[in-house]
Structures
1.
Amino acid sequence: MAYRTVNPYTNEVEHEYQNNTAADIEAALSKGYQLYLHWRNGGELAERKEIITRLGQLLRQNKTKYAEIMTRDMGKLIGEAEGEVELCASFCDYYVKKADEFLAPRPIFTDSGNAYVLRQASGILMAVEPWNFPFYQIARVFIPNFLVGNPMILKDASNCPTSAQAFAELVTEAGAPAGSLTNLFISYDQVGQIIADPRVQGVCLTGSERGGQAVAKEAAVNLKKNTMELGGNDAFLVLPDADIDKLSKVIFSARLYNAGQVCTSSKRFILPDNLYDEFLKRAKQVFSSVKMGDPLDRQTTLAPMNSKRAKDKLQKQVNTAIEHGAKVYYGNQPVDLDGQFFMPTILTEITPDNPMFNQEMFGPVMAVYKYSHLKDGIALANNSSYGLGSTIFGEDIAQARRVASQIEAGMTWINSGWASLPELPFGGFKHSGYGRELANLGFGEFINEHLVYQPLEK
Ligand code: NAP
């Protein structure tokens, strides 16, 4: 596994990293385990909260510096990268405020005696993370688990190593002891070896279905608790009473933010007969007015994709869709720029027998569908092996909520594209994975819920 920063705008190799050795892995496990033993009974929570507070301050003070590192690693727009750094800082604020409440023992009401559940650290967490939000993905597992008392070993995507390294150094700068977060440049086999180690008690992965299956298998064989945040093919279901002007305003963020490389980007737009033609016109206006260029230039509105490999894969998927009957309503032309740009593309007429009907297209490609009766729109939204996020767009909020309750997804947004906030639990259903990150649910995923029970004396 080669860990390299290849700037997707210039195609230049900016950094290359040596892989870690077996001795580095043992040092990470040994330091992490000593910390876990030290923290297990809740000691030093006050100190850990101070460190996370400092982490938030450092993120805010150095927002542009960290944003640039991410932009060079995987090409995202500098403004979007700065927003990501801000979001990570908000996780620090939220969890510092909530840690005592989330870690407090939970009384159990039983008339048979006295019972309560301690919420305790469980051990080292092995985290495998992707490139699309290089800081956010690490932050949303590291921050809560550090407060719980679970040290973390990180294997980040091989194409954003500079971001992973920078995040780990930042954690050290904030005052965290060695072993709190160890970033390793390692192979898939080495990830498996770490998962098998008895000092590791949790495994989390954010990534593709394929990567998730491989890592979940290692976790299952070794009986390690795991969470999987996987891909999606999110439906954006428009109701017949939707306001097309309001809808037009969210098209960009719903589909083109981060060059369309968001797990919860809306990927399938499902329109009622009465709005289908007008929606296509509006979507074309949005897609044709993007400005591709240097992601460090604040005038650029559409970033390159993260790598040549990702761009080639998307092109292959679009070609397959077309070969099986999909129509190109807009786009799918070469882009005359050196970077890994993909022209925003709108596809229609993807039928259920098209191989792309049930595949995630992870880039600036929108698939648009039409329905006549709402029940068919809902059925289309649910006709996917994935179930990550979804959007319902309509003026009658009571109806939008009724429809939301019928969607097979881990998350539904009403009259908005996807969103992620520290207090909102994030996660999927079906092949989009299991478990949650963020909020109280994410905080609790790798806690040992330890029952203490004393029956009444008879
Ligand atoms: P990926 O190939 O699965 O990679 C994600 C991470 O898993 C990387 O660190 C990768 O390392 C590692 N990995 C892959 N196979 C592995 C194996 N067999 N053993 C150990 N580690 C392994 O995913 P991707 O295609 O780069 O990322 C995009 C996907 O992530 C999309 O499907 C997207 O929807 C999903 N995603 C989901 C969420 C969510 O919260 N649900 C959030 C963001 C992204 P290497 O880089 O070294 O291969």
2.
Amino acid sequence: MNQILSLLRPLRLVPIVTAESATEAHALAGALVAGGLPVAEITFRTPAAADAVAAVASRGDTLVGAGTIVRADQVDAAVDAGARFIVSPGTSRAVVERCHERGVPVLPGAVTATEVQTALELGVTTVKFFPAEASGGAAALRALTAPFGEVTFVPTGGISPANLRDYLDIPAVAAVGGSWMLPATAVRTGDWNEVTRLTAEAVTLARRTPASALR
Ligand code: 3PG
């Protein structure tokens, strides 16, 4: 089993956190942990991203990764801050190679057969299927898994409790990413109880996926 699978597969869910400050990220991670999800992908979409990764890493109770990584220097910033896995919206040779150099697992985005083949050529066998719903959803992903028996997918983008099971029931899906458990209003108002409630609901739904469906 490759490195990223051993990290993410047991959790089955990857909450995607876009934080405006390190303090906010720390609190959000606490709300996720309280809901049963000790993992957070911190996106590099705000100036606070690296500090947010460091703040979550310092908690000691959360597997912290960095997302929206599109350049090699961001890999360095994320890893230096404590990120233990890297997620990219697309498949970039520069990002993947820097991750290999830094010894950190990487999940590049791939949504077509050509992109999956590019990832394979770069030595990656687990990819982010992104944007999942806009790219044809679970049906499209299921079709894409057929020719790539050795590839594992983490679909992300437009996933919610309404369609979570459609993805988790695909044997090649290790985990599902998403931000639905961190709605913007709850984050803005500091309603961490709501984040915890939605997280616990997602964890319960994810657990209902039969283990026999995993590979
Ligand atoms: C991502 O960064 O992968 C997406 O923004 C997550 O998609 P979602 O917000 O639709 O869950």
